[in-house]
Specification:
Radius of gyration of chain A: 21 Å
CATH superfamily of the largest domain in chain A: Metal-dependent hydrolases
CATH topology of the largest domain in chain A: TIM Barrel
Number of domains of chain A: 2
Distance between the termini of chain A: 48 Å
Strand content of chain A: 15-25%
Number of helices of chain A: 14
Number of strands of chain A: 17
Largest interface: A-B, 71 and 72 residues
Helix content of chain A: 25-40%
Oligomer: homodimer
Largest sheet of chain A: 9 strands, mixed
CATH architecture of the largest domain in chain A: Alpha-Beta Barrel
CATH class of the largest domain in chain A: Alpha Beta
């Protein structure tokens, strides 16, 4: 498909480039032109010309940490202490999940991503095979992340997935990862570090999410999770940590030294009473930051607008400084930072030759008016209701409330409800 | 207009009543029937029958604290320290506002309220006359609140407004209020307390929003704002405090004793680095709670869904307990608590004889699926994108993205942008 967007404001997110009025052309899966309005006749013949009506085109958001298939647990067990939530509710339900169920539950998450302008997600969950299939079937860009631990997924299985899912489908890729230090024994961690060295690949994991986790690691290993993993050689080729709430100065030094991504999940960290990540400190030390929603069991929504507001508002609260972590920095984390952590170097900005992963933001809504400052409007008052269109690899998957993912959303809702009932009954 | 909603789930918010399937009838400005589906023929002839498609009808949200007309300052001066923000940006711009400007700027806020299912707002701002007119012209329910302080609005002027705006229009009412202890001298406060006694009326004010405010009051008066105002006899007939972030045990006792409303504004309190209100403590002491967005200069959006999530998520973080302030309690604050604080006893629940102030929530969207628990879905993953219809006093003012307030929203946006430019140029 060749698609031409005219009459749009464009935020390319190239460093230092301001928003400008112009147009953007898509050929097949790539952007072929971004610039001022073209006056002369333009080749090729367009399958569609979209009058943007002065609205904003920008890169899509990247959800840098999620467990998409956990949609079945949304609103199933909230308002409970963490331990009870996990052991009495989440684990027993998860134990009954089949790969086929995760296929359908992931599709439900993909629908929600599209409504929030999320064009790619890094997904750490149980069954890479059916998650990859769900993404490919919908046309959604998915970065699978290894979830090795002592109870499920072996390092050998991860190596197989790494080979298979980096050559499976243009929209699917695979990163090395493990669940967390506290669920993964030393021998296994060493095997992962070895695999990372062989593949020259970054490694991702849950890191320092709760105070108890850090204290437990110090008790077990005499050091924090970050220090321990670094000593095991885990981060020779980079990677990152999900959450990173309770970080020591030494931890931060390690993140800065290896350019590890701090992937923050503010809504989940509040709702599970884990804490507030030191995002201002990340920035001051030059640590790259990306934003994730975490899974729908702990958030419970998959909405980058809510996360963006929380990143800046919580930083302002934490630093006791209303000028901390400004809107421009947050927007960069959500669109460009996420692409960096997820290895999507072709999906970060709007430029000729890049993948056409982009969103159209409706500025003709009261929460985006008046137009004093569009970037601040996006972060402080923006909402998923402003997402008019979501395009991935040149295909429009969502437009003004309608989905184009090859399946009726009502069928996906019905399936998700049926699965949830079945799992609940089996308890 | 007589309107019949069929095929809806109904959350009346009467204490203890579960969601049920049924229908609801509106005649003129009131609800005349809420109950199970009616099988026989139903009088009267309907101007409109709305098939709710299994979606949820519930009472509208009440924005219990706002400065609606401050829309012109949205995204104008964020990411600045509070002092600089207020003195160098907000006050100079506000000094140039005319009553007519506030009329148009308030209309912009009303559009946004409608998109978020907000059916009434308590508005403390500069020009009650044009705010009342904006509300009446749009069909929006507005509770004007006195904004007396040493620099604008006298107690005599407030008494006049109290008389006038409690008999001006069915959708408009007026409550006594003053800006804050730190902007209002003792003599004036005593005059307000005297007026409240004469009118047997509650009084509302900003209370203990920042640590500096409380410390300043203790320095000036030897006691906290709450204790000081109570000793002046301010709360003999009730009322409430906006923000209530930094409250002593004695302050909480006074709020409980007089059943004063704690009106919490979590987004604003984070963004301006003011702190987190002790909402769990309010509930444990039986203090009634309502939720406000505060003004668009400090929030910056007027969205009850974001506020609801923040109320519970911040309580969980503050108490270090993921079970604090559950979803049901938050939803009650947003719909029923607000009606209580704003004196709207006819707009709190869905029942025959009550005002038809209600919203239709679209459950057929991915963030509301699966349907494990609708109330939790609303609070934890709900969004303004789920608001399918907003009705005030029996009139549909917003439906699926379209507004019915007697003026084209594009004209309101244009006006707001023009005013903002004019004010900016005048700086």
């Amino acid at each position: 498909m060749n698609i031409r967007f005219t009459n749009v404001k464009i935020l390319t997110m190239e460093p230092g480039r301001e928003i400008f009025d112009g147009e953007l052309h898509v050929k097949d899966d790539r952007i072929v032109y971004v610039g001022p309005t073209v006056q002369e006749a333009v080749d090729p013949v367009w399958d569609r010309e979209i009058d943007g009506e002065g609205n904003l085109l920008m890169p899509g958001f990247k959800n840098a940490h999620a467990h998409s298939g956990m949609t079945f647990l949304r609103s199933y067990a909230d308002d409970l202490p963490l331990h009870e939530w996990l052991n009495d509710r989440v684990f027993p339900m998860e134990a009954k999940l089949t790969p086929e169920m995760i296929y359908h539950l992931t599709k439900l998450a993909i629908l929600e991503y599209l409504t929030s302008g999320i064009t790619a997600a890094a997904d750490m969950y149980l069954t890479p095979d059916t998650i990859a299939r769900a993404a490919a079937d919908c046309g959604f860009r998915m970065v699978l992340v290894g979830a090795v631990n002592d109870f499920s997924q072996s390092v050998e299985e991860m190596e197989r997935c790494y080979e298979v899912y980096n050559h499976y489908h243009p929209l699917v890729s695979y990163q090395l990862g493990f669940h967390a230090e506290y669920t993964t024994g030393r021998e296994r961690l060493e095997a992962i570090a070895d695999l990372a060295a062989r593949k020259k690949a970054p490694v991702f994991t849950h890191n320092s999410e709760t105070k108890a986790e850090v204290e437990g690691c110090i008790e077990r290993n005499g050091m924090t999770p970050t220090v321990y993993l670094e000593k095991l050689g885990m981060f020779r080729y980079g990677g990152g940590g999900y959450h990173c709430v309770h970080m020591s100065p030494e931890d931060l030094d390690i993140f800065a030294e290896h350019s590890l991504y701090a992937i923050t999940n503010p809504a989940s960290n509040l709702k599970l009473a884990s804490g507030i990540a030191p995002v201002e400190e990340f920035l001051q030390r030059g640590i790259p930051v990306a934003i994730g929603t975490d899974g729908p069991a702990s958030n419970n929504c998959l909405d980058m607008f809510r996360e963006m507001f929380l990143v800046t508002a919580l930083a302002k609260y934490r630093e006791n400084d209303a000028s901390a972590v400004d809107a421009g920095k947050v927007l960069r984390m959500a669109a460009v930072g996420g692409a960096g952590s997820m290895g999507l170097s072709d999906c970060d900005i709007l430029a000729a030759g890049k993948q056409a992963d982009l969103i159209l933001i409706d500025l003709h809504q009261p929460n985006m008016q008046p137009i004093n400052h569009i970037v601040k409007n996006l972060v402080y008052s923006g909402s998923k209701s402003n997402v008019a269109l979501t395009m991935i690899a040149g295909k429009i998957l969502y437009e003004r409330g309608s989905f184009f993912i090859g399946e009726d959303p009502e069928a996906i809702y019905a399936k998700a409800n049926e699965i949830t009932r079945r799992l609940g009954d089996a308890q």
